[in-house]
Amino acid sequence: MNVNKPENAPLSLKILLCDDDPAVPAQLEMSLREYFNVKELPQPEYASYTSPKVMLEELCHPGVPHPDIAFLDVEMPEISGIDAGARLQAQYPYIKIFILTSHADYLDDAMRFHVFRYLSKPLEKARLFRNMDDALYQLSVDTRPVLIETAGKSVTRSAQEIIMAEAQGRRVVIHTLDGSYESTQGMRHWESLLDIGSFYRPHRSYIINMKYVRSFSSTLITLEAPGGVQYPAYLARRRCQEFKNAYMLYVEATR
User: Fold this and answer.
1) What fold characterizes domain 6-142?
2) Which CATH homologous superfamily contains domain 145-253?
3) Burial of 138 (0-12, 13-18, 19+ CB in 10 A)
4) Beta-carbon-side half-sphere exposure of residue 228 (alpha carbons within 13 Å)
5) Is there a contact between 230 and 214 (Cβ–Cβ < 8 Å)?
6) Domain ranges of the chain
7) Rounded-to-integer distance, Cα 74 and Cα 24, Å
8) Is the pLDDT of residue 78 over 90?
9) Model-level pTM?
Protein backbone atom coordinates (compact mmCIF):
# COMPACT_ATOMS: atom_id res chain seq x y z
CA MET A 1 0.00 0.00 0.00
CA ASN A 2 1.54 3.26 -1.14
CA VAL A 3 0.33 6.42 0.56
CA ASN A 4 2.86 8.81 -1.00
CA LYS A 5 1.21 9.83 -4.26
CA PRO A 6 0.81 13.63 -4.32
CA GLU A 7 0.20 13.49 -8.06
CA ASN A 8 -3.26 12.12 -7.22
CA ALA A 9 -4.15 15.24 -5.23
CA PRO A 10 -7.51 16.94 -5.83
CA LEU A 11 -7.05 19.96 -8.08
CA SER A 12 -8.91 22.38 -5.82
CA LEU A 13 -8.16 22.53 -2.12
CA LYS A 14 -8.87 24.76 0.87
CA ILE A 15 -6.51 24.70 3.86
CA LEU A 16 -7.33 26.17 7.28
CA LEU A 17 -4.53 27.47 9.52
CA CYS A 18 -5.46 28.33 13.10
CA ASP A 19 -3.11 29.36 15.91
CA ASP A 20 -3.47 32.15 18.47
CA ASP A 21 0.11 33.18 17.64
CA PRO A 22 -0.28 34.91 14.22
CA ALA A 23 3.34 34.14 13.32
CA VAL A 24 2.61 30.40 13.18
CA PRO A 25 -0.06 30.45 10.40
CA ALA A 26 2.08 32.91 8.44
CA GLN A 27 5.16 30.69 8.60
CA LEU A 28 3.13 27.55 7.94
CA GLU A 29 1.52 29.08 4.85
CA MET A 30 4.98 29.95 3.49
CA SER A 31 6.10 26.34 3.95
CA LEU A 32 2.95 24.98 2.37
CA ARG A 33 3.29 27.31 -0.61
CA GLU A 34 6.80 26.01 -1.05
CA TYR A 35 5.51 22.42 -0.85
CA PHE A 36 2.94 22.94 -3.61
CA ASN A 37 5.51 24.73 -5.77
CA VAL A 38 8.01 21.89 -5.36
CA LYS A 39 5.32 19.30 -6.18
CA GLU A 40 4.15 21.42 -9.15
CA LEU A 41 0.59 21.35 -7.84
CA PRO A 42 -1.97 24.20 -7.91
CA GLN A 43 -1.84 26.43 -4.85
CA PRO A 44 -4.80 25.86 -2.50
CA GLU A 45 -6.98 28.55 -0.99
CA TYR A 46 -5.52 29.41 2.42
CA ALA A 47 -7.59 30.76 5.33
CA SER A 48 -5.67 31.86 8.44
CA TYR A 49 -7.18 32.48 11.87
CA THR A 50 -6.03 33.33 15.38
CA SER A 51 -9.42 32.36 16.86
CA PRO A 52 -11.04 28.93 16.37
CA LYS A 53 -14.40 30.46 17.27
CA VAL A 54 -14.17 32.93 14.39
CA MET A 55 -12.98 30.15 12.06
CA LEU A 56 -15.98 27.93 12.88
CA GLU A 57 -18.43 30.84 12.60
CA GLU A 58 -17.12 31.84 9.16
CA LEU A 59 -17.43 28.29 7.86
CA CYS A 60 -21.17 28.42 8.61
CA HIS A 61 -21.73 31.26 6.12
CA PRO A 62 -23.53 30.26 2.89
CA GLY A 63 -21.27 29.69 -0.09
CA VAL A 64 -18.06 29.26 1.89
CA PRO A 65 -16.00 26.45 0.25
CA HIS A 66 -15.59 23.36 2.39
CA PRO A 67 -12.11 22.88 3.90
CA ASP A 68 -10.01 19.86 2.95
CA ILE A 69 -7.09 20.18 5.40
CA ALA A 70 -6.78 21.98 8.74
CA PHE A 71 -3.74 22.79 10.88
CA LEU A 72 -4.87 23.55 14.45
CA ASP A 73 -2.89 24.63 17.48
CA VAL A 74 -3.96 22.57 20.46
CA GLU A 75 -3.98 25.35 23.10
CA MET A 76 -6.15 28.30 22.07
CA PRO A 77 -8.56 30.57 23.97
CA GLU A 78 -12.31 29.85 24.00
CA ILE A 79 -12.07 26.60 22.03
CA SER A 80 -9.15 24.18 22.01
CA GLY A 81 -7.71 22.76 18.82
CA ILE A 82 -9.00 19.34 19.92
CA ASP A 83 -12.60 20.58 20.21
CA ALA A 84 -12.36 22.62 17.01
CA GLY A 85 -10.99 19.60 15.15
CA ALA A 86 -13.80 17.37 16.40
CA ARG A 87 -16.40 19.91 15.21
CA LEU A 88 -14.73 20.21 11.81
CA GLN A 89 -14.63 16.46 11.38
CA ALA A 90 -18.31 16.11 12.33
CA GLN A 91 -19.22 18.65 9.64
CA TYR A 92 -16.66 17.59 6.99
CA PRO A 93 -16.06 13.80 7.18
CA TYR A 94 -13.12 13.81 4.74
CA ILE A 95 -11.15 16.69 6.25
CA LYS A 96 -7.55 15.86 7.21
CA ILE A 97 -6.70 17.47 10.54
CA PHE A 98 -3.18 18.20 11.74
CA ILE A 99 -2.84 19.02 15.44
CA LEU A 100 0.10 21.30 16.27
CA THR A 101 1.58 21.51 19.74
CA SER A 102 4.80 21.61 21.70
CA HIS A 103 3.27 19.30 24.34
CA ALA A 104 2.55 15.57 24.01
CA ASP A 105 -0.06 15.64 26.81
CA TYR A 106 -2.93 16.03 24.35
CA LEU A 107 -2.10 13.07 22.10
CA ASP A 108 -4.81 10.75 23.48
CA ASP A 109 -7.51 13.41 23.12
CA ALA A 110 -6.40 14.19 19.58
CA MET A 111 -6.50 10.53 18.58
CA ARG A 112 -10.06 10.11 19.83
CA PHE A 113 -11.50 11.78 16.75
CA HIS A 114 -9.00 10.22 14.32
CA VAL A 115 -6.76 13.22 13.82
CA PHE A 116 -4.75 12.67 10.65
CA ARG A 117 -1.38 13.69 12.08
CA TYR A 118 0.02 15.06 15.32
CA LEU A 119 2.92 17.46 14.66
CA SER A 120 5.28 18.91 17.23
CA LYS A 121 6.42 22.54 17.23
CA PRO A 122 8.65 23.84 15.85
CA LEU A 123 7.64 22.13 12.62
CA GLU A 124 10.27 20.27 10.67
CA LYS A 125 9.81 21.10 6.98
CA ALA A 126 10.82 17.65 5.68
CA ARG A 127 8.31 15.96 7.99
CA LEU A 128 5.60 18.44 7.00
CA PHE A 129 6.20 17.67 3.32
CA ARG A 130 6.05 13.89 3.91
CA ASN A 131 2.81 14.23 5.81
CA MET A 132 1.30 16.43 3.11
CA ASP A 133 2.08 13.69 0.58
CA ASP A 134 0.07 11.29 2.73
CA ALA A 135 -2.80 13.75 3.26
CA LEU A 136 -3.24 14.50 -0.44
CA TYR A 137 -3.17 10.84 -1.39
CA GLN A 138 -5.69 9.94 1.32
CA LEU A 139 -7.98 12.77 0.17
CA SER A 140 -7.88 11.39 -3.36
CA VAL A 141 -8.86 7.94 -2.05
CA ASP A 142 -11.58 9.16 0.32
CA THR A 143 -13.36 11.32 -2.25
CA ARG A 144 -12.98 9.05 -5.29
CA PRO A 145 -16.47 8.40 -6.77
CA VAL A 146 -17.48 4.75 -7.08
CA LEU A 147 -20.37 3.71 -9.34
CA ILE A 148 -22.58 0.91 -8.00
CA GLU A 149 -24.71 -0.67 -10.72
CA THR A 150 -27.83 -2.49 -9.51
CA ALA A 151 -30.63 -4.16 -11.49
CA GLY A 152 -32.92 -1.17 -10.99
CA LYS A 153 -30.66 1.86 -10.71
CA SER A 154 -27.12 3.20 -10.51
CA VAL A 155 -25.82 5.02 -7.45
CA THR A 156 -22.54 6.79 -6.80
CA ARG A 157 -20.79 6.77 -3.46
CA SER A 158 -17.33 7.91 -2.41
CA ALA A 159 -14.82 5.15 -1.75
CA GLN A 160 -14.80 5.85 1.97
CA GLU A 161 -18.59 5.50 2.19
CA ILE A 162 -18.14 1.83 1.25
CA ILE A 163 -17.79 -0.45 4.28
CA MET A 164 -17.31 -3.69 2.37
CA ALA A 165 -18.25 -5.81 -0.63
CA GLU A 166 -19.72 -9.21 0.25
CA ALA A 167 -20.34 -12.18 -2.05
CA GLN A 168 -23.57 -13.92 -1.09
CA GLY A 169 -23.78 -16.92 -3.40
CA ARG A 170 -24.00 -15.48 -6.89
CA ARG A 171 -24.88 -12.04 -5.57
CA VAL A 172 -22.46 -9.31 -4.56
CA VAL A 173 -23.78 -6.86 -1.96
CA ILE A 174 -22.05 -3.52 -1.44
CA HIS A 175 -22.53 -2.29 2.12
CA THR A 176 -22.29 1.50 2.42
CA LEU A 177 -22.88 4.05 5.16
CA ASP A 178 -26.42 4.68 3.92
CA GLY A 179 -27.48 1.13 3.05
CA SER A 180 -26.69 -2.01 1.08
CA TYR A 181 -26.90 -2.43 -2.69
CA GLU A 182 -26.95 -5.62 -4.76
CA SER A 183 -24.39 -5.07 -7.51
CA THR A 184 -24.65 -6.47 -11.01
CA GLN A 185 -20.83 -6.73 -11.13
CA GLY A 186 -18.90 -9.65 -9.67
CA MET A 187 -16.16 -9.73 -7.05
CA ARG A 188 -13.42 -9.61 -9.67
CA HIS A 189 -14.77 -6.23 -10.81
CA TRP A 190 -14.88 -4.94 -7.23
CA GLU A 191 -11.42 -6.21 -6.37
CA SER A 192 -10.04 -4.24 -9.30
CA LEU A 193 -12.13 -1.14 -8.59
CA LEU A 194 -11.24 -1.06 -4.89
CA ASP A 195 -7.53 -1.66 -5.35
CA ILE A 196 -6.87 1.59 -3.47
CA GLY A 197 -5.75 2.83 -0.08
CA SER A 198 -7.60 1.18 2.75
CA PHE A 199 -9.29 -1.77 0.99
CA TYR A 200 -8.21 -5.37 1.46
CA ARG A 201 -9.57 -8.79 0.44
CA PRO A 202 -9.21 -11.08 3.50
CA HIS A 203 -11.35 -13.87 2.02
CA ARG A 204 -12.69 -14.72 -1.42
CA SER A 205 -16.16 -13.57 -0.32
CA TYR A 206 -15.18 -10.19 1.18
CA ILE A 207 -13.41 -6.94 0.34
CA ILE A 208 -13.26 -4.72 3.40
CA ASN A 209 -12.48 -1.10 4.13
CA MET A 210 -9.90 -1.17 6.93
CA LYS A 211 -11.13 2.22 8.10
CA TYR A 212 -14.09 0.43 9.68
CA VAL A 213 -12.27 -2.50 11.30
CA ARG A 214 -13.39 -2.76 14.92
CA SER A 215 -11.62 -5.99 15.88
CA PHE A 216 -10.28 -9.19 14.36
CA SER A 217 -9.27 -12.72 15.30
CA SER A 218 -7.50 -15.42 13.32
CA THR A 219 -10.72 -16.21 11.40
CA LEU A 220 -13.08 -13.23 11.71
CA ILE A 221 -12.98 -9.46 11.17
CA THR A 222 -15.66 -7.23 12.66
CA LEU A 223 -16.34 -3.91 10.94
CA GLU A 224 -18.41 -1.15 12.50
CA ALA A 225 -20.14 1.80 10.83
CA PRO A 226 -20.27 5.18 12.66
CA GLY A 227 -23.84 4.47 13.82
CA GLY A 228 -22.73 1.29 15.57
CA VAL A 229 -24.00 -1.25 13.02
CA GLN A 230 -21.51 -4.14 12.78
CA TYR A 231 -20.59 -6.33 9.82
CA PRO A 232 -18.72 -9.65 10.09
CA ALA A 233 -16.22 -10.72 7.43
CA TYR A 234 -14.33 -14.01 7.32
CA LEU A 235 -10.53 -13.99 7.37
CA ALA A 236 -8.91 -16.89 5.51
CA ARG A 237 -6.32 -18.56 7.73
CA ARG A 238 -3.69 -18.42 5.00
CA ARG A 239 -4.18 -14.65 4.80
CA CYS A 240 -4.15 -13.99 8.54
CA GLN A 241 -0.57 -12.76 8.81
CA GLU A 242 -0.77 -10.85 5.54
CA PHE A 243 -3.90 -9.08 6.76
CA LYS A 244 -2.26 -8.20 10.09
CA ASN A 245 0.70 -6.70 8.22
CA ALA A 246 -1.56 -4.75 5.84
CA TYR A 247 -3.69 -3.47 8.71
CA MET A 248 -0.65 -2.36 10.70
CA LEU A 249 0.63 -0.48 7.64
CA TYR A 250 -2.77 1.16 7.28
CA VAL A 251 -2.85 2.20 10.92
CA GLU A 252 0.69 3.55 10.71
CA ALA A 253 -0.15 5.51 7.56
CA THR A 254 -3.10 7.22 9.27
CA ARG A 255 -1.20 8.25 12.40
Assistant:
1) Rossmann fold (3.40.50)
2) LytTr DNA-binding domain (2.40.50.1020)
3) buried
4) 0
5) yes
6) 6-142, 145-253
7) 13
8) no
9) 0.67
